[in-house]
Design a protein that fits this description.
Blueprint lengths: L1 E5 L2 E4 L4 E8 L6 E8 L6 E6 L6 E3 L7 E6 L4 E6 L8 E9 L12 E2 L3 E6 L1
Parallel strand pairs: 2-11
Antiparallel strand pairs: 1-3, 3-8, 4-5, 4-9, 5-6, 7-8, 9-10, 9-11
Amino acid sequence: VQLQASGGGLVQAGGSLRLSCAASGRTRISYSMGWFRLTPGKEREFVAALTWTGGRTSYADSVKGRSTISRDNADNKVYLQMNSLKPEDTAVYYCAAVVAIGLRTNDDEYDYWGQGTQVTVSS
């Protein structure tokens, strides 16, 4: 499966962004999906994940309460709505997929990655 992330940009602190991840290729398989982010000098960080059905979700403490992950399987898309953005949310955000039913929160569990989309939050 190929993943294409989009929706990043420059936003002021307190603003919102909605990231999208479009899947193509072998999409008729049960994928669990996740979002991760990477900041220079830091390791890749888990942000959010959800199961194939979307019935279960998980969030990093740093974004919990401010972000919502969702998916539209008919459209083969996964979204990350981020509100009340902070400068520390600045990073390149990646979507990822793994053939699995349950939640996956570790980046080494994912097999497929998108190219990343830059999110910059100014103070």
